[in-house]
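Entry 14. Structure prediction run on the chain below.
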Amino acid sequence: MKRVLLFVLVCVLASMPAFAQGGAAAAPASPLTQGDRGAYEMVKGYISKAAEQVPESLYAFKATPEVRSFGQIVAHIADSNYMICSAAAAEKAPGGDIEKTKTAKADLGKALAASFAYCDGVWSATTDASGAKAVKMPFGPAMPRLSALSFNTAHDFEHYGNLVTYMRLNKMVPPSSQPQPMR
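Output returned:
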């Protein structure tokens, strides 16, 4: 028992200089927004990598004839990013009708990247305080700005699941299942 107490005491004393010198991580200014943005950054990375990884020849692939193709899902994600993030910003959506106007991998990649860049700007302008303000959604009731951005993240994850299925059907490993580099 004395050894355990001595070990705990040594650990506490050893950690004190780090706290005294500011070694402890400071709390973020907007922890709720920062936490939710982490999930958005994750799905943005997965979708962007999937769009890059899949060859152009599979952009027309459909799991069944009744559903969107891989490319149409990428376009739908881009359109939705603009629609939902612009609602969160209380702005008019800047994107066009990407799903109906673009089919080439390069064009869809640029449109997807631009839609994520637009959402990045909305996220950057959002704090916990501004995230609590109600915004009008293009569908359904008004909701807090941060909830609208979180809804967009959930929507992106939903369609990333579609992309994963399409990749697996074509014997590809999706980004979220690929080995991650050591940090």
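The beta strands are 134-135, 143-144.
Filed with the rest of this week's runs.
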